[in-house]
Amino acid sequence: MRVLLAIDGSEHAAHATQAVLSLSSVSRLTILHVIDLPRLTFSMLGPEIAYDLSKVAEEALRKDGEQALTRAECLLSGKVKHLDIQMEEGSPAELILSVAKEEHPDLILMGARGRGQVEELFLGSVSQRVLTHATCPVLIINRPLTEIRTVLFAIQSPDDVQKVRQFLEKHPFHPQIEITLLSVVPIPRSLFRGGVSAPEGKIEQALQSTESFLDQAVSQLKDSYNSIKGYVGLGAPANTILEQASVTEPDLLVMGIHHPSTITRFVLGTVSHTVLHQATRPILVIR
Known about the structure:
Distance between the termini: 16 Å
Number of helices: 8
Helix content: 25-40%
Strand order of the largest sheet: 3-2-1-4-7-12-11-8-9-10
Order of helices and strands: EHEHEHEEEHEEHEHEHEHE
Oligomer: single chain
């Protein structure tokens, strides 16, 4: 599995670096640091002084970047067969996406928020943009992740199952992990207005249909990992996913992005957006 690790010296980036060790079958690792030079303006100073100050800032950022790359290389050297170190200068999100386009990684790994970033709710602006435009799975680290033993996959369609299967076939996790497939039966809130409850027969049909869907999904994914089970949730999808993650405390929460062409500040799909910005576990977004 080819992994692109984007770091910037922040705490979340350090957690992302450590998270590489929790993955299995990493055949090639690219560690990328982007120097994001600030646009310094010193209108009250002469051009020579402004230039000198800009160079000082650039040299400081470059030194910080080199130190971050050295720390990551020391930790991960020898853990993967092929290790590549890159330092670029420019827009972090754009360069992460550009390198990913050139190298075709199976996974982009990065921290939820970087140092000095303007926060987009609970996700940093860089991670938000990479999630929006990346064409491969993206693993967002928002807390330390040293070992992956349990994974919760939120799925809702056969297309999701296919995406999960394609990702698991790369054997990104160690064989002993426990996988739970969660599918939620949504209940419109309007059914409960004025004390009206949903017809029990209809709910039972929906539950049976979802259980059948999960049984088929488990059967299709057994070739990749043996310890896989299904779980049917009932209620508002985003809240149910978050509640299940809170109860079971998986090491990793996985979900797909639907309708990627409509992703904006509010849309990774309403469900995806809510989960991404409220989850307290590392999240893997697959495509």
